[in-house]
Amino acid sequence: EVVLPAVTGDWTVMNFCPKSNAKGWWADRDIVLAAVAQCADALGLADKLMWEDRDLVLSAVKTSYEILTKCPGHLKSDYYQDRDMVMEAVQQDAMALKEFNEEFFSDLEVVAIAARQNIVIIDSVQPKFTKRYLEDHTIALLLVEHDVQNFERIPDILKQEKDILLAAIKQKGSLRSCTSLIGMDPSWERTSMGWFVVPDGFRNMLGWIHKRYGGLPIYVTENGCAVAADTVEDAKQDHFRARFLEKYTGAMLKARDEDGVNVRGYFCWSMLDNFEWCKGYAMRFGLIFVDFKTLERTPKQSFHAYQKVIRAEAAASTGSASKRVVAEDSPHCTLTSKRKFGA
């Protein structure tokens, strides 16, 4: 049996900075939206892949235009600008999906999970958005209708744009895994980023999603941890990440096998050490160590630990010649690692 890899086509920061350069072509929203749609067409592998067209919208918007810890980090940014950026991101998503559907499908069957977390967080600092509840497993609609409340800087949404957004949101969704710390167990470990390691919480969250949304297929699109190891000798012995992956994949498989959660896929972040936003090269998420001076790559202990997990899962799966992320009727869970073009 085969576990097929998945590839992330990454536009990195550009797609969140269309208004950061008033004289640049990114300032023209029509050009921006058309470019994203063309990208969807250029990468048009049609039904060969499952597409996740946007990652970390909330993180990019909130950290770039509100708390200013990531580029472009405007010093005079306000809460209305980050709302504008959310609108840009949603419109780009919708245009890409519209282009993809019209080119390749008459009835694209892509149903995922939508959650209210983005709206809850954005609403805490923004004028209230008008929220409309949709059928077909989508419980929240972000920025399709809004109250401008006499703030003329917030753009109105044209009727045709609203129709495109509604059509897109009815077909796809995502759950942004933001959390708010209410309490903690002193025994919990932390990654080098300061994030808690709570695999039982991961299992419980998957169970909650399963119950809340009626057993929809769940794809864990990003899970991993940062370990600050600057030398290849330290990286080869990254016991912390190896334990992390064993515990989290173990918790996920228990959720699937013991709790009946409909988990279909898992992406480990990431295959290679990468440039981690404002943390630069200090925070290493990769299963493979990268010497950023020579670009030499060395598998870490966690690489072999994750390889063992994948092999065990493939060996335990029976009844199909091949397992793919797009195989909606497969009873098995596909595990893979996430990387970027050019990495």
Question: Quick recap of the structure?
Answer:
With 343 residues, the protein is of the alpha/beta class. 35% of the residues lie in helices and 9% in strands. The chain has two domains: 14-169, no CATH class; 197-338, TIM Barrel.
Overall structural domain count = 2
- Estimate the strand proportion: 5-15%
The count of DSSP E runs of length 2 or more, i.e. the number of strands, is 9
Low-confidence stretches: 11-26, 104-158, 169-178, 319-333, 339-343
> Secondary-structure element order, as H and E?
HHHHEEHEEHEHHEEEHE
Number of helices: 9
What does the main sheet amount to?
Answer: 3 strands, parallel
Cα shape: globular
Structural class: alpha/beta
Strand order of the largest sheet: 5-6-9
- Average pLDDT works out at 64
Distance between the termini: 27 Å
Tell me the layout of helices and strands.
Layout: H1 29-42, H2 57-65, H3 79-104, H4 117-123, E1 129-130, E2 145-146, H5 159-169, E3 189-190, E4 196-197, H6 199-212, E5 218-223, H7 232-236, H8 239-257, E6 263-269, E7 288-290, E8 297-299, H9 301-316, E9 334-338
Parallel strand pairs: 5-6, 6-9
Antiparallel strand pairs: 1-2, 3-4, 7-8
Helix pairs in contact: 1-3, 2-3, 3-5, 6-8, 8-9
Keywords: Glycosidase, Hydrolase
Domain DUF4116: 82-121
Family: Belongs to the glycosyl hydrolase 1 family.
What can you tell me about this protein's structure?
- The protein is α/β, with parallel strands linked by helices and 343 residues long.
- The longest helix is centred in the N-terminal third of the chain and has 26 residues, at 79-104.
- A hairpin with a 5-residue loop joins strand 3 and strand 4 (196-197).
- The strands form 4 sheets. Strands 5-6-9 form a 3-stranded parallel sheet. Strands 1-2 form a two-stranded antiparallel sheet.
- Helix 1 packs parallel to helix 3 (79-104) and helix 2 (57-65) runs antiparallel to helix 3 (79-104).
- Helix content is 35%, strand content 9%.
- It contains 9 helices and 9 strands.
- The chain has 2 domains: 14-169, no CATH class; 197-338, Glycosidases (TIM Barrel).
